[in-house]
Amino acid sequence: MDYRELLFLRAVRETGVLDAVVTDADTVDAVAEETGVTERAASIGVETLCDLGFLHRTDEGFEPTNRMLGFLSKTDLRSVGSLPHELDTLDDWIALPETMRTGDRPTPSPDATRNRLGAMAALDEGDVRAAVTAAVHEHPDADSVLDAYGGAGTFSREFARRGYDVTLADTDEVIEVDEPLLEHEPVTLQATDPIDGVDGTYDLVFCANTARTLSPDANERLLDALYDAVASGGTVVHVDRLRNHAEHPGLLAAEMLARTDGGDAYAEADFGEWFAAAGFEHPRVSDVPGTRSQAVAADRPAND
């Protein structure tokens, strides 16, 4: 997406123009009156939203198109798409100078969790299948799977389609958003923060795009907690982007500085230390074909 489009969409969101055009403002004058922007700004804003395909011109004024669904839908994550989360990410990047000075990220928007899960629900299906295949390859005999920090259930559904007994564990806030989306899926939901431990044991424990969002200490504590969730002889798999495999590792680390409270770009050696501290054996790394990610796996010793 052209950077100008993202910055424009951020501007109309910040000024309230976006909310106005998706609720009851259907003319330029109404947009200006409701938001307090100038008439010139309202006119150009509406014109640009039409040109970008977010609004459709009518005889009376304009109305939202399907491309605006991500800003309209509040419950169906499949309608949210990736754009609202892209704007949240842009906010984090713009606030990066202040984050660097203070160490504190800006307060997330009220819709930040929903937007993040919407983006996850819109992940490329090929990338999802490739990640699940890579995880399955690490433990071909698994029957049960725990999707730790499973978010929108994108990977859980793929595991379930392949016949696995799947449990998704995530925070209360995420599970509340997930329930309408996954109520008809063969996926068990467990409302718990995995770093504090989960119920049950599983042949395969899977984490996607989680490690880089956590601090080193939090990653070590997470694997320590997940050790108890892995059945004897079972396997834990992180699918993530590793520092020593990334095209621009510095930018990956900078993104985590902007977007997370303690995340970073991590190398194979970091995972090896965390696995060893938790008691896992046989750490290994492989590329996830067709993606920029790697699968980092280790085993809980048999009969442990």
Question: What is the makeup of the main sheet?
Answer: 7 strands, mixed
Low-pLDDT residue spans: none
The structure class reads: alpha/beta
Note the overall shape. Answer: elongated
- Largest sheet, order of strands side by side? 5-4-3-6-7-9-8
Strand content: 15-25%
Quick check: average pLDDT? 94
What's the order of the H and E elements? Answer: HHHHEEHHHHHEHEHEEHEHHEE
Q: Percent of residues in helical segments?
A: 40-55%
Question: What does this 3D model show about the protein?
Answer:
This protein is elongated. The chain has helices at residues 3-14, 17-22, 28-35, 39-51, 69-72, 83-94, 96-102, 112-121, 125-138, 154-161, 172-182, 216-227, 249-259, 268-278; strands spanning 55-57, 62-64, 144-148, 165-170, 187-191, 202-208, 230-240, 281-287, 294-299. The termini are far apart. Strands 5-4-3-6-7-9-8 form a seven-stranded mixed beta sheet, sandwiched between helices. With 304 residues, the protein is of the alpha/beta class. It is built from 14 helices and nine strands.
